[in-house]
Amino acid sequence: MEYQAEPKIYNRLAILRAQRSLSRHELAHALEIDYQTLGYLELGKINPSLELALRIGELFGLPIETIFSRQPFQPSNEEVHGRLM
Predict the structure, then answer these.
(1) Which helix (DSSP H) or strand (DSSP E) does residue 11 occupy?
(2) Is residue 47 within 8 Å of residue 38, measured between CB atoms?
(3) Which CATH superfamily is domain 10-70 in?
(4) The pLDDT of residue 6 is above 80
(5) Distance between CA atoms of residues 38 and 30, nearest Å
(6) Which residue ranges make up each domain of the chain?
(7) pTM (predicted TM-score)
């Protein structure tokens, strides 16, 4: 049997963290994970567990599909205005 890599999960963690003026250390502490793990998550180098994704959604008060996606997110201004500004 051939090994298949886990599909990439895209996220908006860095944007959400910046919007709330949180450092990587502060968010990692709130999520009870290592700040380096958060960095790997933000960069898309690792995928969150379902339990961690749910905790992140609860912390930000957002549904997880707003934070994570199997498809790349469009830039925010495209989503709001339907085109690049």
Answers:
(1) strand 10-11
(2) no
(3) lambda repressor-like DNA-binding domains (1.10.260.40)
(4) no
(5) 11
(6) 10-70
(7) 0.80
Which tokens is 15 given?
């944007």
Q: Which amino acid is at 8?
A: K
Q: Which residue has the tokens 């963290």?
A: 17
Host H or E run for residue 69: strand 68-69
Q: Which helix (H) or strand (E) holds 44?
A: none
For 2, phi and psi rounded to 5 degrees? -85, 135
Tokens of residue 44, six digits: 């898309």
More confident residue, 75 or 7: 7
- Distance between CA atoms of residues 22 and 72, nearest Å: 23
52 class by beta-carbon count within 10 Å (0-12 exposed, 13-18 middle, 19+ buried) = middle
Report which residue type is found at 78. Answer: E
Residue appearing with tokens 């707003």 = 66
pLDDT higher than threshold 60 for residue 83: no
Token pair for 70: 């199997």
